[in-house]
Amino acid sequence: MPIAWCACKRPFKRIVLAGGPCAGKSTALLEVPKRLPSFTFFLKPEAASTCLKETGGKFGKVLQDKIFKKELELEAEALEKARKSDNPRTVVLYDRGFLDQTVYASQEQYAALINGRNMTEQDVIDRYDHVIYMHSAARGAAEHYSNKSNTNRTENVDRAAHICRKTEKAWSVHPNVVVVDNSTDMKGKIDKVVGHIIEMMGK
User: From CA 94, how far away is CA 29, in angstroms rounded?
Assistant: First the structure.
């Protein structure tokens, strides 16, 4: 059984914040703890960004292996901290998760990654209680799309929209997914994320 997953009853929630390029995810990760001061948040950083820096941005099997290993380490660290919290409103907030890798790896590569750790697809899904998926600005708010704030983001609008749809499909296998689209401005998107987390904590 993977070290970062436990079937026992947990006093905290594991919530993934996923999304396409330029979705406002980074902003949400900063703003949510400020908006919910009575909650205790433990952030699981994005594994891919760290690994891209280590490999110089080169994609391939070696990078996928690094990301998978780093994801395991980061999730285990965040969960260990959460287990020590005595706040009933404790949340492990994940900046992306394992299912993001299915977008960048072939089916064969992804199967090899999880099988090599004695994991099944259901094991991966069960690592998370809820998922909040934020649409890229490329879908419905293209005038606000930019890759200037993230050196790892090289996609144009069309490519970003494609990746966003593909990533949303990857996360759709989870039974508890809510989608935050671009029907509002960024403040409205953050409001929705905050509202969803409050609702999820009641379940």
Answer: 9
Structure tokens at 77: 């660290």
For tokens 């949400």, the residue is 28
Residue 153 lies in a domain: yes
Q: What is the DSSP letter of 36?
A: -
Please name the residue that has the structure tokens 């960048």: 104
CATH number for 184: 3.40.50.300
Q: Spell out the per-residue pLDDT of the chain, length 203, in tens.
A: 333 434 445 689 999 999 999 999 999 999 999 999 999 999 999 998 778 766 555 556 678 888 899 999 999 999 999 999 999 999 999 999 999 999 988 889 899 999 999 999 999 999 999 999 999 999 999 999 887 666 666 778 999 999 999 999 999 999 999 999 999 999 999 999 999 999 999 86
Contacts of 104 (CB under 8 A, 6+ apart): 59, 64
* Residues 22 and 71: beta-carbon distance below 8 Å: no
Residue 94 lies in a domain: yes
Q: Whose CA is closest to 4, among 95, 99, 119, 103? A: 119
pTM of this prediction exceeds 0.70: yes
How buried is residue 203: exposed, middle or buried, by Cβ count under 10 Å (0-12/13-18/19+)? Answer: exposed
Element (H, E) at 12: strand 12-19
User: Which letter does DSSP use for residue 136 in this model?
Assistant: P
